[in-house]
Amino acid sequence: MIQDTILTLARALSTQSISMVDKWANQHCLLCRGAHPSDTSVCSGCQADWPRFSTPLCRICGDQALTEDRICDNCDRQRPPYIRASAAFPYTFPVKEAILRMKFSRQPEWAIALADLAYPCFEARFDQLHGMLLPVPLHPRRRARRGYNQAALIARQLSLRSGWPVNETLCRRVRNTPHQARLDLQARKSNLSRSFEVCAPVPDCPVIIIDDVVTSGSTVSAISQVLQGAGCEAIHVFSIARALSEPGLSQADSSSANEQT
Questions:
Q1: Lower CB count within 10 Å: N or C terminus of the chain?
Q2: H or E element, residue 214
């Protein structure tokens, strides 16, 4: 009961914080803080300076793919349990810093700017679909400590722009696992084993898993597997950022390097 009260209060406070910042953002850019009377929270100058992918990406998992068929080695060996994972930006400066501030510095307002910047990519990717947004769930204890689920904040902002519904109760995290950073790929998979469960009937429509950043892909794959087991047939992934594997490093090793702060 106490934990439920804490979670309810945390959600209310994060929603109020974003509401207040949203009003301020109608007049100022959230990134450069300059005057910006517009419907978006980010000015055109900052939008133009935001990083873009410069290398070919795997058409399944969204990692680097230097082959002609644009399928990376990992997906060629074993296809993931989702149809496709897409990201708006590479996990580099200043995207990485914005996400870290949102997650660890109690700055939920970054969800507004990140969603504004990412929405054109989201719209282009899913224009022909109509489905449901599923934010990657946090364990209740971690969500209580942080005050909010950053993936849920992003999903709500994407919902406001797209009109797609958000379902925050379809899947829950039942194990409070250690952070994935600095774990190799096998350790990440073991860390997430039996961490998620579906707790409601799956919808008869595509489900798009929403996260702030995808690194090795272990988390979204674990969620996709339990959704498949519950009968979900069309699963996609969308994240604000993607940590790309570096030449000469495995996907997990590269992801761990990207996650260190």
A1: N
A2: strand 207-214
Q: What is the pLDDT of residues 222-260, one digit of tens each?
A: 999 999 999 999 999 999 999 998 754 445 444 444 443
In terms of phi and psi (left: phi > 0; alpha: psi -120 to 50; beta: otherwise), the region of 195 is alpha
Helices 110-126 and 150-162 pack at an angle, to 10 degrees, of 50
Q: What is the pLDDT of residues 130-150, one digit of tens each?
A: 899 999 999 999 999 999 999
Tokens read off for 27: 């007049």
**What are the structural domain ranges in the chain?**
54-259
DSSP percent split of the chain into helix, strand, coil, nearest 5: 40, 15, 45
Q: What pairs with residue 33 in β-bridges?
A: none
Which residue in 217, 248, 241 sits closest to 93, CA to CA? 241
Which CATH code of 3.30.70.580, 3.40.640.10, 3.30.230.10, 3.40.50.2020 fits the domain covering 54-259? 3.40.50.2020
Coil, helix or strand for 221?
A: helix
Residue 175: partners with Cβ closer than 8 Å, 6 or more residues away = 139, 194, 195
